[in-house]
């Protein structure tokens, strides 16, 4: 593999990311899936001296409904317009989304308005009639992983740990998985484009890890919206994840890094499900492959306590990775809340090694 | 094992690297003319069996070339052996003998 | 009004026309931007459909050039026309300096040819990233070197894939047209690979096989029947690298309607034609029009396919779109005859 060939492509897909003063909108689902991720983003942004503003009255962008065929595009555009109105009212112009599907929807809406100004005008009328609000379109739209990519060197410089096996000195082998709606619709909106996205690769390289390029890297995580949301289709969902795991296994990955709400959920939870369906585990010695969001990984690099990052609610235990990176943790505190109360401990899986 | 109410779906992709080419080797040794097929579909268009069943002689010898001969076993019985396919083939594939060869492969290889 | 002709482009078309025009007693100057004449043909090992040596054709054409003034390493920077005379300004690029010179002529022949599609633009095919993904032109280089075709790891490739339509029939890269000669090139190269390595498996991944000329369909039949080359109808969708450096392909076998994956040791991309990068500048100087595909339009594609529409400016070869070597030679001869006729008629008129 010639890395310089990829660099030529990455150079062609660079985008502008604002440096400070972000209006941040959350994901509908991430606080349930990976409860510490968004909080961690806000924490390191503050530590890096960046101003991130949140308006508590912001809502879903409705992208999840749009992609599940239950929210029409006209409605989604009006929802998006309202989020922009909240940004405008707060005096911000740099819009940052936590969710990849939101990022895709915002990009799609802005692109639609660019080519069809009459649709934008109609949306403005809808928003005005429904809420009396007005909006200015964002000057800069970025996903929170874009912003983290931009700060990757600052994070590395302030960091206490690296993606390096402390025993062997070897880089940790990382699979990066990009959400479908990040750059596939608009390759130019993603760092590195759609074919070899660089946004997570840049973080992994900067933080000392080694990126694995495996044949099914483009394959869907298995969420696929309707594939998962309709129980009768769920076999497709778990099979899609399995296809990825089977393909990455020969490369011996030690971590899967993601930037989407759904991907870490399914790549994490389905490892347990597959192990209970046919006994297969994908890590070393019956372990799973730990799956993380980029915020959680940035938190680990910065030396945040793993249990403050919410890593105890991952289905695949992360201890194997913490041990390799030399990150200390207190097993006794894994299932305690911030006040020291026991939050309950899951039953041990039949095959997947549990801590 | 836990019953989740849904199961793993078999991958329908041809996995050429792990294909079963025993059928192809045997059939080709008996009737090498299958190699010159250009997939035009004349054979299937004229086939008596294809009019009323999903029998598709063009697909059958294609799947054995892709290393996935499993589906031919049930399908081949639908052939009426009329030989119209061979009459229309623009490449001169000996389709009648090809069907006999495929039957022989099923007998020998199971 | 004189009898001097400038030909821009020293590939097969430009050289062929030059040979004809000197035979007609005209004063011919051939301008070539590269340091050597011969164009793409100089890079090719053997030609379809009979696999004769490309160098034989090149030698034949070059044999007619004794009285042609050949200027290589020269870029056309300006063309102006006054009455019946053209003035062409050029820049010769030298390592130390650049020299500007001027040429005058009574007629111009544009034979600026084509460029090969840059395979890197099909990002999903990994050219320039995966070591064992090469182009059809790279393969010809290797055939020509006579050193055998090996994988980057130095092994004989046990399984080889040839991908048709790379950069052609592909709206995604902006090229809707068919490059026409890649199909038969793919079949020719598949045969050559089987000839070299009979035990290796060779697969052609195609959408349609456009065997448009005499003996081409027979070559396809021979590839299947004699050499056992396999043809899978499905465009390559994406590929990736296995840990051992081999390439894993994904395509649909459209004849059975199922996706297919396959490992190959070597993948060859049959890259198509794109308009040559310098042609549009020259067209701009003369006010010539290109089609939506970027190739130059002639005055009438049926009846005046060598006329540019500008009196005294003629067109030959692949600047008008993808063609084979045989067609390029025929087209260049036709252009030369028409150009010579123009010079004679204008000279007679002015005398």
Q: Can you walk me through this structure?
A:
The complex is a heterotrimer of chains A (355), B (110) and C (351). Chain A is an alpha/beta fold. Chain A is 43% helix and 8% strand. Chain A is built from 16 helices and eight strands. In chain A, strands 2-1-3-4 form a four-stranded parallel sheet. In chain A, strands 6-5-7-8 form a four-stranded parallel sheet. In chain A, α5 (73-89) crosses α7 (117-131). The mean pLDDT of chain A is 96. The longest helix of chain B has 15 residues, at 95-109. The mean pLDDT of chain B is 95. Chain C has a five-stranded parallel sheet with strand order 5-2-1-9-20, with helices on one face. In chain C, strands 11-18-12-13-14 form a five-stranded parallel sheet. Chain C is elongated and about 65 Å long. The chains are: A alpha/beta (355), B mainly alpha (110), C alpha/beta (351). β1 of chain B pairs parallel with β17 (258-264) of chain C.
Keyword list:
heterotrimer, B: 110 residues, mainly alpha, C: 351 residues, alpha/beta, FAD/NAD(P)-binding domain, 2 domains, five-stranded parallel β-sheet, 7 helices, 20 strands, elongated
Q: Which geometry of chain C do the CA atoms define? A: elongated
Q: Which two chains share the most extensive interface?
A: B-C, 17 and 17 residues
- CATH fold assignment of the largest domain in chain C: FAD/NAD(P)-binding domain
Oligomer: heterotrimer
Number of helices of chain C: 7
CATH class of the largest domain in chain A: Alpha Beta
Short summary of the structure?
The complex is a heterotrimer of chains A (355), B (110) and C (351). By secondary structure, chain A is an alpha/beta fold.
Write the layout of secondary structure elements.
The complex is a heterotrimer of chains A (355), B (110) and C (351).
Chain A: H1 3-12, E1 22-25, H2 30-33, H3 37-47, E2 52-53, H4 63-66, H5 73-89, E3 94-97, H6 100-115, H7 117-131, E4 140-143, H8 144-150, H9 152-158, E5 173-177, H10 180-183, H11 199-206, E6 210-212, H12 226-229, H13 234-248, E7 255-258, H14 262-278, E8 291-293, H15 294-301, H16 319-325
Parallel strand pairs in A: 1-2, 1-3, 3-4, 5-6, 5-7, 7-8
Helix pairs in contact in A: 3-15, 5-7, 6-7, 8-11, 13-14
Chain B: E1 14-15, H1 22-30, H2 42-46, H3 57-65, H4 72-75, H5 84-88, H6 95-109
Helix pairs in contact in B: 1-6
Chain C: E1 4-8, H1 12-23, E2 27-32, E3 46-47, E4 52-53, H2 54-62, E5 69-72, E6 74-82, E7 85-93, E8 98-105, E9 107-110, E10 114-116, E11 133-135, H3 136-145, E12 159-166, H4 182-196, E13 201-206, H5 216-225, E14 230-233, E15 238-241, E16 247-253, E17 258-264, E18 266-271, E19 273-275, H6 279-286, E20 313-315, H7 325-350
Parallel strand pairs in C: 1-2, 1-9, 2-5, 9-20, 11-18, 12-13, 12-18, 13-14
Antiparallel strand pairs in C: 3-4, 6-7, 7-8, 10-19, 15-16, 16-17
């Amino acid at each position: 593999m010639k890395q310089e060939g990829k660099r030529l492509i990455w150079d062609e897909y660079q985008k502008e990311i604002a440096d400070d003063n972000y209006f941040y909108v959350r994901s509908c689902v991430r606080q349930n899936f990976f409860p510490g991720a968004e909080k961690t983003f806000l924490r390191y942004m503050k530590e890096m001296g960046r101003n991130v503003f949140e308006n508590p009255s912001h809502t879903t962008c409705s992208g999840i409904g749009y992609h599940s065929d239950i929210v029409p595009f006209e409605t989604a555009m009006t929802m998006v317009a309202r989020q922009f109105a909240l940004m405008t009212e707060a005096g911000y112009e740099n819009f940052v989304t936590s969710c990849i599907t939101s990022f895709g929807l915002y990009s799609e809406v802005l692109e639609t308005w660019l080519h069809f100004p009459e649709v934008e005008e109609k949306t403005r009328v809808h928003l005005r009639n429904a809420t009396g609000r007005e909006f200015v379109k964002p000057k800069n739209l970025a996903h929170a992983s874009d912003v983290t990519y931009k700060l990757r060197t600052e994070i590395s410089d302030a960091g206490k740990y690296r993606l390096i096996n402390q025993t062997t000195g070897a880089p940790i082998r990382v699979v990066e998985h990009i959400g479908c709606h990040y750059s596939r619709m608009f390759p130019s909106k993603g760092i590195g484009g759609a074919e070899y996205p660089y946004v997570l690769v840049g973080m992994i390289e900067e933080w000392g890890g080694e990126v694995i390029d495996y044949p099914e890297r483009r394959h869907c995580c298995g969420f696929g919206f309707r594939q998962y949301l309709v129980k009768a289709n769920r076999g497709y969902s778990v099979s899609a994840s399995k296809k990825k795991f089977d393909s990455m296994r020969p490369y011996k990955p030690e971590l899967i890094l993601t930037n989407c709400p759904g991907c870490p959920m399914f790549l994490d939870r389905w490892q347990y499900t597959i192990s209970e369906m046919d006994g297969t585990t994908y890590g070393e010695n019956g372990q799973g492959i730990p799956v993380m969001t980029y915020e959680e990984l940035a938190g680990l690099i910065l030396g945040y306590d793993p249990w403050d990052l919410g890593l105890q609610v991952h289905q695949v235990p992360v201890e194997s990775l913490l041990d390799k990176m030399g990150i200390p943790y207190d097993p006794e505190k894994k299932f305690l809340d911030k006040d020291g109360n026991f939050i309950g401990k899951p039953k041990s899986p039949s095959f997947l090694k549990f801590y | 094992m836990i019953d989740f109410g849904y199961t793993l779906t078999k991958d329908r992709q041809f996995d050429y690297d792990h294909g079963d080419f025993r059928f192809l080797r045997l059939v080709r040794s008996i009737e090498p003319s299958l190699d010159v097929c250009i997939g035009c579909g004349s054979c299937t268009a004229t086939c008596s069996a294809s009019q009323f069943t999903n029998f598709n002689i063009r697909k059958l010898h294609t799947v054995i070339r892709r290393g996935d001969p499993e589906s031919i076993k049930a399908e081949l019985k639908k052939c009426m052996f009329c030989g119209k396919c061979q009459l229309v083939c623009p490449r001169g594939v000996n389709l009648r003998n090809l069907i006999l060869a495929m039957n022989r492969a099923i007998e020998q290889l199971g | 009004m004189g009898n001097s002709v400038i030909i821009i482009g020293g590939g097969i078309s430009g050289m062929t026309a030059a040979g004809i025009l000197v035979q007609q007693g005209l004063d011919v100057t051939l301008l070539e931007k590269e340091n050597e004449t011969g164009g793409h043909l100089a890079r090719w090992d053997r030609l379809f459909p009979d696999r004769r040596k490309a160098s034989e054709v090149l030698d034949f054409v070059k044999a007619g050039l004794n009285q042609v003034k050949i200027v290589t390493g020269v870029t056309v920077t300006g063309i102006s026309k006054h009455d019946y005379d053209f003035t062409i300004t050029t820049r010769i690029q030298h390592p130390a300096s650049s020299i500007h010179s001027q040429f005058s002529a009574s007629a111009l022949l544009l034979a600026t040819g084509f460029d090969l599609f840059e395979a890197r633009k099909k990002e999903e095919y990994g050219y320039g990233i995966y070591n064992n993904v090469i182009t059809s032109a790279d393969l010809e280089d290797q055939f020509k070197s006579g050193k055998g075709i090996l994988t980057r790891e130095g092994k004989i490739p046990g399984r080889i894939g040839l991908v048709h339509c790379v950069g052609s029939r592909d709206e995604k890269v902006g090229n809707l047209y068919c490059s026409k000669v890649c199909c038969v090139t793919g079949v020719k190269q598949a045969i050559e690979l089987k000839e070299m390595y009979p035990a290796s498996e060779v697969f052609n991944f195609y959408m349609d096989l456009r065997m448009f000329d005499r003996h081409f369909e027979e070559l396809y039949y021979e590839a299947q029947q004699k050499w056992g080359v396999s043809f899978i109808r499905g465009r390559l969708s994406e590929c990736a690298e296995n840990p051992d450096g081999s390439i894993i392909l994904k395509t649909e076998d459209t004849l059975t309607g199922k996706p297919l994956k396959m490992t190959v040791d070597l993948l060859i991309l049959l890259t198509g034609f794109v308009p040559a990068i310098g042609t549009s500048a020259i067209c701009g100087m003369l006010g010539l029009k290109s089609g939506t595909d970027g190739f130059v339009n002639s005055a009438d594609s049926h009846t005046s396919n060598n006329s540019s529409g500008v009196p005294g400016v003629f067109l030959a070869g692949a600047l008008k779109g993808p063609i084979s070597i045989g067609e390029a030679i025929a087209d260049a001869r036709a252009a030369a005859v028409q150009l010579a006729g123009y010079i004679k008629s204008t000279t007679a008129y002015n005398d």
